[in-house]
Amino acid sequence: MKKIFSCILAIIILGAMLSGCSNNDSKEMIKKAKNFSIPHEVSINPTKEDYGILAYNFLHYIQDNYPGRIAGTEKEKEMAVFILSALLNGGYSEKDISIQSFNITEAVPMMDESIKNKFEGGKQSNSSQNIKVVKKGESEKTIVVGAHYDSAGTHGVDDNGSGIAVALENALRMADTQTHYTICYIFFGSEENGMCGSREYVETLSEKEREDIVLMINIDSVLAGDYHYLYGGNVNEHGKVDRAEAVVKAYDIAKKLGLAIQLPPEGNIDYPYPTGQKRSDHAPFNDIGIPYIYFEANNWENGSPIETEKHGLIMHTDKDDLDFIENEYGERAKNTLTDYSTLLYSLLQENDWEQEYK
Predict the structure, then answer these.
(1) Is the pTM of this model over 0.85?
(2) Is residue 227 within 8 Å of 297, Cβ to Cβ?
(3) What residues make up the domain containing 247?
(4) How many domains does the chain have?
(5) pLDDT (tens digit, 9 = 90+) per residue, 282-315?
(6) 223 domain-assigned
(7) Domain at 280, CATH number
């Protein structure tokens, strides 16, 4: 989840497949990813495990190795290399993967102004990158699954190690699974600076690519909040909510699966039901008319997003730490990852999104 800063939208575009990529930084990232030794705990076959197990292992690894993934820093790029390595070792080839680099104007997202960054993230640059991997389906029609991998100057396991973990587990689980839709997983860079990665991705889509996207699923901060929410829908020029059918369908599926996942409370004037805040990577997709489902754990019971009743905000504070979250909330982290991982897999098995919801 980001605090908004400006980002330069004059971008170095690397949308071509890696085999044709001429950017030296991207080639170096791929070289590092190929040479990266994936630890056993994050190299297990997810299809042989319950939902959320591999995601939880990923989260522990992120906690221990990638704190302070501040946009434009070495630590953000190290996280990108790990994601690439996990994909290359998990059933995808270089031809399935592409890297899109772009410039940013702010390298360091601020936490609460009263709190100093716990981790600085290493050497800073003015660039970040999106990592995209495509799993071909029977149709060219596409579902985008997105999660940003940068963070504030914390361990960033809630915001957004949790989204990375759920998306990565699912990408590996789906690698050899037949699906009706093509699934495009995008790990966005520089979300905390104003959704720079997702904005650039959307702005560089061709007309056909836009038309082919039937749904965007955004996973952001799904670890620590008191309630497991789904948001969706667009507030139109008349102040009415449209394009909410997809999130209602997702909620119905969650109920049938017996998951502890819900829609946000009704009656919020600022955020009409069932929409949520436009502070994450679904927003650029919604802006061009693409239906979205946004996964987030939060607490809206009092009309504003306090995240937790006990400790208030976890994201963008020094409490965004897996040890703290588990000490304070026990099995919440595991249970949340399990629920969202289960739902994501089920949503991607559906084959009628574009007929009813596009």
Answers:
(1) yes
(2) yes
(3) 18-357
(4) 1
(5) 999 999 999 999 999 999 998 889 999 999 999 9
(6) yes
(7) 3.40.630.10
